[in-house]
Amino acid sequence: MTNNWRALTRWTVVVPVLAVVVLALVWGRHLAGPVVLLVAVLLAGAVLAAVHHAEVIAHRVGEPFGSLVLAVAVTVIEVGLIVTLMASGGEKAASLARDTVFAAVMITCNGILGLSLLVGAVRRRVAVFHPEGSGAALATVATLTTLSLVLPTFTTSKPGPQFSTGQLTFAAVASILLYGVFVMTQTMRHRDYFLPVNETGHGDAAVVEEDHAAPPPARAAAVSALMLFVALVAVVGDAKAVSPAIEKGVAFLGLPLSAVGVVIALLVLLPETIAAVRAARRDRIQTSINLALGSAIASIGLTIPAIALASLWLTGPLILGLGPAQMSLFALTVVVGILTVVPGRATVLQGWVHLVVFAAFLVLAINP
């Protein structure tokens, strides 16, 4: 009885439930400043709780399934935020999906990846990982981003950087197909390419067996699955409640509207970043790369189909095409990423290169 009571009073259970209760009380109402602050705090707490429960489930199922669970959970949060903000933003939110997805790609492929490589290389001088799995993930990210965000800039069937209905349908189907094939490759056919590696005396990579503590019992995993659902509901609902405040804050600071997408991506991917850095500190660079690139793949592979479906009832244009500066940064990211993952080994230099590219993205997002 005591253990059950302690489990029910943990912050990872209390915060999501409290966030849902507050959401029910403020839904559809104009929020004053203090209430917005309270909802925002609960929103952040619900995001952290959601990732915590995803990690519990991940610990139960093991790698690389664990990274997959966390990436999908984070992406569901991201999709919910995008759809809710687009539904309430009208034409002002026409480019929100593009800005958020591109921000997620830059954060994961440069910010999270660069920070993980830097932490791992500082500890062991050289960060070691599987080039086969990492290269396959990077190729998938590059293909999905090009098909979904680069091509709309150059198509001519519809004015502006937009897809026609047929083109958007193809992009959605291709995205979900590639995501499904990647998941099958990661978890079934070539699972060993995505397991953590360690450096041997001759510099070869050898698979490291799981050295975590005993996995949680099935009951604890089931509770975490339920609380993960509650936390996701809280995140999506509370995000819609505070979305007017986010837009007003961005406008007050004189930032471009695209900064809203960057804020969303940073908020959603912060727990993912923490998890990747923790893995890097334990010399599990492959897990960090799985989290980073897997989140980018899930972000595009699941968001684009969801937005395509949402466009059936959302009014206004759907702008997906990137601008010249964004495409330049993406091309640089792909080139640098290839040079990083092909050797299967990275030093602090590669980590700093990715972080500098990420810093350039942030500067251009604030001052385009």
From TrEMBL:
Lineage: Bacteria, Bacillati, Actinomycetota, Actinomycetes, Micromonosporales
Protein's UniProt name: Ionic transporter y4hA
Parts of the chain that traverse the membrane: 7-27, 33-53, 65-89, 101-122, 134-154, 166-185, 220-237, 249-270, 291-313, 319-342, 349-366
Organism: Luedemannella flava
Chain ranges of the Sodium/calcium exchanger membrane region domain: 36-187, 224-366
Subcellular location: Membrane
Membrane topology of this protein: Multi-pass membrane protein
UniProt keyword Transmembrane, yes or no: yes
Keywords linked to the UniProt accession: Membrane, Transmembrane, Transmembrane helix
A Pfam family this chain is assigned to: Na_Ca_ex
InterPro entries: Alkaline_pH_Ca-Antiporter (IPR052946), NaCa_Exmemb (IPR004837), NCX_ion-bd_dom_sf (IPR044880)
